[in-house]
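Allow me, if you will, to draw on your knowledge of protein folds for a short while. I have a record of one protein: its chain in single-letter code and its fold written as discrete structure tokens. The full record is reproduced below for your convenience:
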Amino acid sequence: MTTYDDKKQNNNNTAPIQDEDDEQLLLVEDDELILLEDDEIIPLVEEDDNSSLQVEPWKIMIVDDDLAVHQATKLALKNFVFDGRPLLLLEAFSGSEAKKLILENPDIAFILLDVVMETNDAGLNLVRYIREELNNRRIQIILRTGQPGEAPEEYVIRNYEINDYRTKVELTRQRLITSTISALRAYRNVIAVEEKSIELTKTLKNLQQTQLQLIQTEKMSSLGKMIAGIAHEINNPITFISGNIDYAREYVSDLLALIDLYQENLSVPVAAIEEKLEDLDLEFLSQDLEKLLDSMQTGSDRISKIVLGLRNFSRLDEAQMKQVNIHEGLENTLLILQHRLIANGSYPEITVVKNYGKLLPVNCYANQLNQVFLEIFTNAIDILTTSKDVEKKPTIFITTEMKDSETVRVSIADNGIGMSENICKRVFDPFFTTKPVGEGTGLGLSISYQIITEQHKGELQCISQLEKGTEFIIDIPI
């Protein structure tokens, strides 16, 4: 048996050694193959037959510091084909060489690994590197050693994640081919399981996303129905009030004119009437009553605008694309969130700075676009209301412009705490949220991204810097 010192001497003399074990490996060529299936191995091809080279080969790596072992292994596996694919043999003469090859070839199927090379435990260290540092469980590792005393089988099996343990005396050509087939079959099965697991994970994620999208859509639909219902209920009485203010103004004007007429034509007013006129201060009442009616008119007009805004925000009757004024959508959304912009005991008033450009109408799904505006505004408000920077006045900046002749650009920015680059890159990922558990699904911005990019063929970008705020840029083809 070739010893470690013999190997070193051989390497120093640069002449390959072929001991009795190697001769056995080379000479036993008529052994009957076992554990084979008809569809997994085909007859050995001749050297001039290149048909097997047209398919992707199985990558196998020989890691051994003995050149003769490499030569014997290559000869034994020459023209070998498994599952319709030939072998590509990679060679390393040390653990360090093997590490480099593994990094360059992550699709290596299995390794025939010696134990004693540049150090007595070089092979075992390579096993730990593959399994622990690279976290690679795909590669099948067959440990083969000519010095089992350096790596006792039970100890190695218990402490190292290898797939097979062989002494070099055991590896006749038949056993080498059998081990190769078993390793390739195991590698193929691991890949299949991993691919199936990835597929199932993706399917589960898609199902979860679809479920949450349905929930989110239902919430928006319920919100729209509720808003539309409230708007309808408010609209009837406010229309009645607004429609009668003009009549009230006219009637009051007639009554005041009648009082003036009485005063002009009664030379001696009745004492009781005179006293009452002094108590009422008729002149002030006449002037203030007009202001009162004006205030009522202003209030009713304001409520009418709010009702119209609520109805426009819900847009339940607009399931199809239609031309929309983007500014109306922004204003209607801000109207819904007005109560969150005003100051309370926990945070100051949030200022909204608008820089509206001249825009062309956009052909879009108005309700969906309002949903995007609502999500972005809500996130900005959430950030600004939790900021502890008392010196910075919380502000939302809205800028609209024509990016080009065919595209409308809407920018919604805040001067909040901002986000790191890593978080900014993930804000549109499904289920990603920085909010505490129970406060966010991590789906709002993901759905917004789909609405803009898929439904409207536009773009949605997030730009943010820590302590400098966050900006969302929406580009929508008109």
Notes: The first helix runs from residue 4 to 13. Residues 1-53 have pLDDT under 50 and may be disordered.
